[in-house]
Predict the 3D structure of the following.
Amino acid sequence: MPETYDVAAIGNAIVDVIAPCADAFLVENGLTKGAMMLVDARQSAALYARMQQAVEASGGSAANTIAGLASFGGKGAFMGKVADDPLGRVFAHDMRAIGARFENAPLAGGPATAVSMINVTPDAQRTMCTFLGASVEFTDDDVDVATVEAATMVYLEGYLFDAEAARRAFAKAAGLAHGAGRKIALTLSDSFVVERHRGGLKGFIETQVDLLFANEAELLALYETADFDEACEQLLRHCELAAVTRSEKGSVVLSKGETLHVPAEPVEKVVDTTGAGDQYAAGFLFGLARGRSLRDCARLGGLAAAEVISHYGPRPQVSLKDLAASRGL
C-alpha cells in the first residue's frame, strides 16, 4: 500500500482552556505544579469558575503533534474520540482545517468532549487538570486499518494508557503497523503516567516501539533512577531509537549507532510550556518521514518547541515550514 500520511496519531481529543495564574492559586486549589491530574466533570467546572480569563484551543498531545506536522508541510491523520457536542464539533473542525484526516464518529449519549484546564504560572510552567470525558471511549474499533497501513509512522500518546480499551487499540495499531512494514512511535506523555503504568509501558516499549519520545523526568521515572546516563543506557537496551528532551539543555537522541546532544533553540521569552514536547515530536517525526538526519530531526523538533513556548497555546502560530527555511532547515 502506498504511503499516504507521514504520521497517523492516536490520542486523547481534548479542548484546552488556558489561563495565567499565580503560584498561590495552585496551592489554594491543591494542584501540583507542572503536573497533569485527572478530574471529573464537577471538579473541572469548579476549577474553571475560579480561573482567570482563559483562551480556548483544540489540544490533546498527539493532536497537537499532528498540527505541528501540518505546519511543517507534512501530511497527518488523527484518531481520537469526541462527543457529539459543541466542543466536539470545534475540535473536528480545527483538525480538518489544518488538512489532517479526522474521521472518527462522535460519541452520542455518553460523556462530554474532554477538556483540560491549564493554569500557567509566571515561570511558564503549565499545570493541567484534565476531564477525559469522551476521549476514553476510544476503542480498537476506532482504529482505522487503512489509515494505519498508509502511514510512514504511527504515533501513540502515553496518556491513553489510563484506559484499558485504548491500550487494546494501541496493540491493534502496533500489529497493523508492523504487519504493513510501518514504524511505531510512543510518547510517555507525563511522569505520573509512567508511575501509574510503568510495567505496561516497559513491556510495550520492549516489544512494540521503534521510536520513543520522553522528557528527562519521564525517562528517570521509567527506570526509577536519578542518574540520567544510567536511564539512557537502560533505554537503549529496549528501544532502537529515542529522543529525550531536557528543557533548556536541548535534547539527546539515542540510537544503537550514536548518541547525539543537540542544543536547545534560543527563545527570547518563555511564555507557556504547554505543547513543547508535542511540537518537538512534530518536528522530529516530520524530519524522519522526509529522510533527514537524526541531528536535523532533533533541530526541527527544537525549533518547533521554541516557537510554541513563546506564546500561549499548544499549537504553532506561525508557519513552521517557513521558520525552518529561515534557519536553513
